[in-house]
Amino acid sequence: MCAEPIAGAHQHVVDIEGRQLMCVCRACYLLFVDHEAALRYRAVPDRYLAFPDFTIGQAEWDALEIPVGLAFFFRNSATNRTVAFYPGPAGATESELPLARWQALLERHPELDILAADVEALLVRVPANDTAAASCLLLPIDACYEFVGRIRLLWRGFDGGQDVRDYLDEFFAVVADRARDAV
Questions:
Q1: pLDDT score, position 1
Q2: pLDDT value of position 130
Q3: What is the arithmetic mean of pLDDT over 145-159?
Q4: How many Cβ atoms sit within 10 Å of the Cβ of residue 1?
Q5: pLDDT tens for residues 16-48?
Q6: Cα 2 to Cα 136: distance, rounded to the nearest angstrom
Q7: DSSP-assigned beta bridge partners for residue 94
Q8: In terms of Cα–Cα distance, which of 168, 176, 178 is closest to 87?
Q9: CA-based nearest residue to 93, from 144, 42, 49
Q10: How far apart are CA 54 and CA 32, in angstroms?
Q11: b/e string for 119-152 if b means 16 or more Cβ within 10 A?
Q12: pLDDT reported for residue 131
């Protein structure tokens, strides 16, 4: 955005029109922190929240028509709808989310309806077996894309392989430790 060099540790903004993340210096980042302003760019916040009381059954997850047990959801302000992406060997794949099903989930869990549009996402993990509980975390959108990118790099074979499964467990443990419980 400007001529200032960008440090290794830096922040991001989302280009709302182009649906792109952009690396920015601190000064440029601060120009776009007001999420109420009608701007082309929005600063990606650094908020991590956990929802320990979140539940979702397999039938409810299946009704969302997401073919894997992991996806992130965010509000796209340009289209005024919730979109879902799930990881795979090609990166982030967009799912056509049935909004009525997502709305039903939000009605049952109103605490989830706190996302800043375009810049925060809910990362939901539904285990393949019924013995483990589902996980739901609110993350910055850049963390979600970084997560999916790492999965893409590690992916081997049809189901991703052991490296992907290990990374999933490690990622959720690290992020859960970083997140504070949503109240």
A1: 81
A2: 64
A3: 92
A4: 15
A5: 988 899 999 999 999 999 988 888 999 999 999
A6: 36
A7: 85
A8: 168
A9: 144
A10: 31
A11: bbbbbbbbeeeeeeebbbbbbbbbbbbebbebbb
A12: 60
User: DSSP 3-state assignment of 97?
Assistant: coil
DSSP codes of every residue in 135-155: EEEEEEHHHHHHHHHHHHHH-
User: Could you tell me what percent of the chain has a pLDDT over 70?
Assistant: 98
What angle in degrees, to the nearest 10, is found between the helix axes of 141-154 and 162-178? 160
Joined tokens for residue 28: 């440029």
| Both structure tokens of 165 | 């499964």
Distance CA 51, CA 138 (A): 8
Distance CA 34, CA 174 (A): 29
Each residue of 81-113: pLDDT tens digit? 899 999 988 889 888 777 778 888 999 999 999
| pLDDT surpasses 90 at 166 | yes
Backbone angles phi, psi at 4, to 5 degrees: -65, 130
